[in-house]
UniProtKB/TrEMBL annotation:
Membrane-spanning intervals of the chain: 20-49, 69-89, 146-165, 171-190, 260-279
Intracellular or extracellular location(s): Cell membrane
Source organism (scientific name): Phytohabitans maris
Name of the molecule in the record: ABC transporter ATP-binding protein
SUPFAM superfamilies the record matches: ABC transporter transmembrane region, P-loop containing nucleoside triphosphate hydrolases
Domain (ABC transporter): residue spans on this chain: 249-560
Domain of life: Bacteria
């Protein structure tokens, strides 16, 4: 893929959004050129029809020449056939341009989301991302779609102006001077519409994010009786969004009315002038018929141009949102000169805490505060920068893709995606069955109507918290990374299930390094090595039973539930 035309980190300016739309157009330049070409021929063939009709009136009807009438009638039929054929081709290419722009934008945003990884939710609200994938792609597609008709409209107006000039200089001047004035009048409505659309778009994204938060936390809200409060807050925000939508619609309604009234008034002016010239004998009856046809036809290209301005403006607003996302950069930069890992497995060492993870062992980290364990896991997986080495090589000197390939951090913030469960877990049936047994999750699949072929709902909402936790563990086991870091993998399951998982986990991960951040005695007792972390540092290490006897602080931490 070519380099993306995005600005430096920060809020993109007007030019960056324009460059993005231009970049999309260049990526599909053959179809864009074809669309503009067909659009010009399609519109010009319509613009020439009044002139042909005028010739048929003067040469055929006024002079009673059947041959001339037949000739100009044939020319009119030919123009109609050309218009029909090129209209079909223009529409087909325009739809292709719409789809190409919209779905290329989706591809870019998905690639960027994958590139940002954990940085994305920190920098951009969920509603903003959703709006890009729904409303914005449509506006961007429309901006490229309308170029074919817009270009044809401009050429058609120029063609009519040339014909009128050759027939009547005053009428030609009316068109040449009047059309730019009309465009300036309509353009005056575009700037306030642009501002209001931007404000409405931002507010819509915030409300979408709030709706997602409410749906996600609905069970908690019901548990604490907070439904009414959040419903009232959402209702107030919704009414505010409605008011913003009304303000946008007010300007849009004026723009729509101007698209009808202003060209209509212009048509009346041209017809009136043409009639006066005909009465004075300055133009022929056929030319008067042509002028009326021009005046009637001009409404179409003029409205097309105002529509083009409107859609390009909307596309520009949407492009600014997309560019804002594309301009985001990861919290962790790639190394300028990436290092290579030596062959074979090596120790994973966190210099800040003193944690050492050795290959082929199940290492448990028992921290006196959950935040310390989470911070260590984030540093080990390089989700935050730290003094961490793998096989003696600092993680910050390794390509991030290499780190993600070697080290997998699985925590309870992971989501289950919608789709067949088999595809969500990954792997063949044999491997999935073995991972389900290790995670004590076989009963979950057995209870599903279609087993592994059952379609999982969004975020796996049909599963309980403990079931989701076990399925996330299955997914992590099937990934089978050289180093697996599990953060509280059994916090939501009962003691019997936890005991089975603890008993099977070590054997399933034999030969690879596994780190479990937990304070569960059942899991700690099955670990090969336990690290007790206090105030972010390793305060003691050894076997679980050894630490129970020699480290009172550790004993107090892991037996707290039993003492109560």
């Amino acid at each position: 893929m070519r380099s993306l035309p995005v600005a430096d980190p920060g809020t993109p300016d007007h030019r960056s959004a324009t460059r993005f739309l231009w970049w999309l157009a260049v990526r599909t330049w053959p179809s864009m050129v074809a669309g503009i070409g067909w659009g010009v021929v399609w519109m010009v063939s319509q613009a020439l029809m009044p002139a042909v009709i005028g010739k048929a009136v003067d040469a055929g009807l006024a002079d009673r020449d059947r041959g001339a009438l037949l000739t100009w009638g044939t020319v009119l039929l030919g123009l109609g056939l050309v218009q029909a054929a090129t209209g079909i081709l223009r529409h087909r290419v325009a739809v292709f341009n719409w789809l190409a722009a919209a779905y290329r934008t989706i591809q870019l945003t998905i690639v960027q989301a994958n590139r940002l990884g954990a940085t994305l939710p920190k920098r951009l609200a969920t509603g903003e991302v959703v709006s890009i994938g729904t409303a914005d792609i449509s506006h961007i597609g429309n901006a490229l779609d309308v170029t074919a008709r817009g270009s044809g409209a401009v050429v058609a107006i120029v063609t009519i102006a040339v014909i009128l000039f050759s027939t009547s200089v005053p009428l030609g001047l009316v068109v040449i001077v009047g059309v730019p004035l009309l465009m300036a009048l309509v353009g005056g409505l575009i700037r306030p519409l642009h501002r209001r659309q931007q404000a409405y778009r931002d507010q819509q994204a915030r409300l979408t994010t709030q709706a997602g938060d409410i749906v996600t936390g609905l069970r908690v809200l019901r548990g604490v009786g907070g439904e009414a409060t959040f419903a009232a807050r959402y209702r107030a925000e919704s009414q505010s969004l409605r008011s913003a939508g009304v303000r946008v619609a007010r300007v849009e309604s004026v723009l729509e009315a101007a698209q009808v009234f202003v060209p209509g008034a212009f048509v009346v002016l041209v017809v009136w002038l043409g009639a006066r010239f005909a009465l004075r004998g300055e133009i022929t009856p056929g030319q008067l018929v042509s002028f009326y046809g021009y005046a009637s036809f001009l409404m179409f290209p003029l409205r097309t141009i105002t529509e083009t301005i409107d859609k390009v403006t909307r596309g520009h607003v949407a492009a600014r949102r997309v560019v804002a996302m594309l301009a985001l950069r990861r919290d962790l930069a790639e190394p300028a000169h990436p290092a290579a890992l030596p062959g074979g497995a090596g120790d994973l060492v966190d210099g800040e805490s003193g944690v050492v993870v050795r290959p082929g062992r199940l290492t448990a980290i028992a921290a006196n505060t959950p935040e310390d364990a989470t911070a260590i896991a984030d540093r080990l997986g390089r989700y935050v920068d730290g003094e961490v080495t793998l096989s003696g090589v600092p993680l910050r000197e390794l390509p991030l893709a290499t780190v993600r390939e070697r080290i997998l951090v699985a925590d309870n913030d992971g989501r289950l995606f919608s789709g067949p469960l088999r595809a969500e877990l990954g792997g063949d049936d044999e491997r999935i069955g073995a991972a389900l047994a290790v995670a004590s999750a076989t009963d979950i699949v057995d209870a599903l109507p279609d087993g592994l072929d059952t379609v999982v709902a969004e975020r796996g909402r049909e599963f309980s918290g403990g079931q989701q936790q076990r399925l996330r563990l299955v997914r992590a086991l099937l990934a089978d990374p050289p180093v697996l870091v599990l953060v509280e993998p059994t916090s939501a399951v009962d003691a019997h299930t936890e005991a089975r998982i603890a008993e099977r986990l070590g054997a399933a991960r034999a030969g690879r390094a596994t780190v479990v951040c937990t304070t569960s005695p059942l899991v700690l007792d099955r670990a090969d090595h336990v690290l007790f972390v206090e105030d972010g540092k390793v305060a003691a290490e050894g076997g679980h039973r050894e630490l129970l006897e020699t480290e009172p602080r550790y004993a107090a931490l892991v037996t707290r539930g039993e003492e109560s």
